[in-house]
Design goal:
five-stranded mixed sheet; 1 helix
Amino acid sequence: MLMRTDPFREMDRIVQQLSGTSGTWSKPSVMPMDAYRESEEYVIAFDLPGVSTEAIDIDVERNMLTVKAERRPVAKTDGVKVELSERPLGVFSRQIVLADTLDTERIKADYDAGVLTLRIPIAERAKPRKISIGGESSRKQISG
């Protein structure tokens, strides 16, 4: 149901983690995600701990899903000295090409415990359906 848009993105993410660089709006860091099918929905879960809902932006254009989020530093008061700072700050982004079999008009988004969960229903046209076969009674004989 999903296709990766950039095969080198995972390598960029690893380099950014090792080098400690943060993402910017022009070059965001990649956010980790899981994607799976659950019954009649496709579910995508993004890890965004410490990000407020106001700092998350979700867009769909045709079948391209874009999720951007920004984790800002906590405002520090006078007299505060940071001893250790390992949590990444900056901008995180992910673009995913969604299959035509998903109904992008009815995407639901929930954010709980630092996890953004998108639920995308499977389109009716993509669901299996039964085709009935006409029997002998529906045939007509043509006479010349």
